[in-house]
Amino acid sequence: MVGEAGFGFAAASTWWLLAESAENMVVVGGDGRERVGWFEGGGPSNLRCRRRKSNPSPPAILPNELITDILSRLGVKYLKQMKCVSKSRNTLISDPIFIKMHLNRSSLNPQFSLIAANNNDHSFVRFPVNQLWENRRINIPHDPYYQLNDKNCNEIVGSCNGLVCLVGYSLNEITRYRFEYCKFTFGYDNSTQTYKVVSLRSVTDCTISETNVKVFSLGDNVWRTIHGFPAASLQLDFGYEYDGVHLSCTINWLSVQDVFGRDDAVEQHVIISLDLSTDTFTQMMPPENYDNRGCISPNICVLMDSLCFSYDKGTEFFIWQMTQFGDEKSWSQFLKLRYCNVGIYYELGHPRVTPLHLSEDGDTLLLANDQQDNAILYDRRNNRAKKTRINKKICWFSIRDYVESLVPIC
User: Fold this and answer.
1) Which whole-number Å values give the CA distances from 286 to 99, 270, 320, 326, 343, in the listed order?
2) What is this structure's pTM?
3) Is the predicted pLDDT of residue 132 greater than 70, yes or no?
4) CA atoms of 215 and 198, how far apart (whole Å)
5) Of 4, 40, 237, 324, whose Cβ has the fewest other Cβ atoms within 10 Å?
6) How many Cβ atoms are within 10 Å of 405's Cβ, its own excluded?
7) pLDDT single digits (tens) 167-185
């Protein structure tokens, strides 16, 4: 079965189609040797290598560079099977240089991942982002291989370089006067090439409110406490608005702090950033134009590798983009839209809108809202919106970016 780019996996288990041209196909057999020919009448079992009668030529041999380039375009499932073809293929596909090349190519075809629930069954599912941009009907299959019932995990914490972190919660510790809540974020430390899970735990009672931060590094399996969290109170119990986001070797949260003036205390939003390489915290202020007294549902997210700050004000929705990460002066207004232009009606109640993904050309924005089961595809250039088409109800607020990769856990 040939893919759109001319690369794919042949139907038979012992034959692999590597490339095709107008005249022939290159096929790898079970012995690991490449052959040139084409399929006739039913597939690889009838492969015949034809030669010109007048001028027979020796079998073509593909250079290693071309084979590597072709293989780097295949999916992980097929590459895992290809490792069983020969020792040379196993060595190539396991090579860190090849794994990085494959990851870079996979990043050009991003996917979404989410947990789909059917009664008491929870499954991990993913689908290509381009299906949403083309607004094709998406059918999420039921695959027993991805069921999570026996893993006690029903939430995606995050995804980095193709690795997906799942978490399962037990009941939060609640007493008469004390409430504890915990959230997790998944990130990557470029300096040590280590994947890390960050735990943010909020403890509140009638007299104090504090936040504790711990970091778990894959490889040494040790939880370390990180001291010096600058916010006295991080509102973890407000849903997805206060989830941490991973960007450029940092984990970022939106927090609320009390600023004491002459008369009384005023709540002020601040972005807290944890550097995974140094275990240090920094604070960043939202855009200067943001006034939390007249704005609702503030949120931070990552769009096209940039930190973004969103909120709504009356019947309008705003997104600001930090063009230089860490520089508070680099905030730039990215989007301003009226709810009526995207089919959201303020009269039905205050909407909760969250940006999920931005197309590569920056023209189409995927938005989730709590008034509808479908997400919204907003065309910024033409100021038009349309609903996504999917075969079942899903929680769009829990969706995460995902790419296929061969990256090992540690």
Assistant:
1) 38, 6, 9, 11, 28
2) 0.77
3) yes
4) 5
5) 4
6) 20
7) 876 544 444 445 667 888 9
